[in-house]
Amino acid sequence: MNIWFMKRCFFLFLVLIVWVPPVAAVRIKDIAAIKGVRTNQLVGYGLVVGLNGTGDKSGTAFTMQSLGNMIERMGVHVDMAGLKAKNVAAVMITSDMPPFSRTGSRIDIVVSSLGDAKSLSGGTLLLTPLRGVDGNVYALAQGAVVIGGAGGNGATKNHLLVGRIAGGASVEREVTMNLNQREDLLMSLFNPDFTTVTRIADSINRSMNVPVARALDSGALNIRIPENMKGRVSEFIAGIERLQVNPDQTAKVVVNEKTGTVIIGENVSISTVAVAHGNLTITIRDKQEVSQPNPFSEGATVVTQDRQVQINEEPVQVMVLPQGTTIGELVKALNAIGVTPRDLISIFQSIRTAGALQAELEII
Question: What's the pTM?
């Protein structure tokens, strides 16, 4: 019985040594994008009206000037010097227009206070053109500003100077991009890496059975559109995006000294090194001892200082990490000697100084 049990344990031990968990594969669309298929940032300047006395103060000149100009364009002449309105606030509107947005499509917008308003709660954004970096108007924004966190009886919560309008802008100009007229595509990686871009090219070529993809550098690859897919480029791109690859990554240890955060990459390994960890604590206590004379005696009260010094030193623990130690073994070994995140920072810096850390150490 004991022999059978020992044989089974030995077999399981061999399985655990030989079997290595596979690296999780990800879709190509999650680590790369087609050049030109991107969002376009829009920005505009407008006015929010209908505020309950929480708008910009009268001293905010650009708000009053904008209000006066708007009223003048509507055919009403106003005296700019005497214009006062606490229910109006100047705002900046920002939005991201998705790629291939068509005329009439609705997009979300963010409304942010520009002056010294107290709150945008309950306000309505007046018609505002949203422009791109080229100065052209691509969308028109208008609607009621929605802000969460406005409480009653004077209680407020969250930030009241930034609001959103879901579908608050309509697209008026399209960004033209005809994929069906292209002969090839350029795909860019979010995290450039030579190994990853080569794996993507190999995966695409295997799926098409022809060499259509070629890596240009660590961050991009060129994809030639096959003859049978011309005119159906969208289907071709969709098929590529569904392919899965195992992205590679550089061995790196990221340390944030301000927060004590340590992030260790998967491929981090170390050479043979011994790590010693221990703490020395010195505690000093001062205690006053008072000696008083007997009653009706002419003696004097004597005060003496009694200082107690206590030294506690934790036993130093030495952990030997052999060459080729993986991240799992490294973390397990460091946890075994009871290190804290702050200790990890010093340990990794020391290992790096000793030349035993086979990874890039980045301190932020």
Answer: 0.67
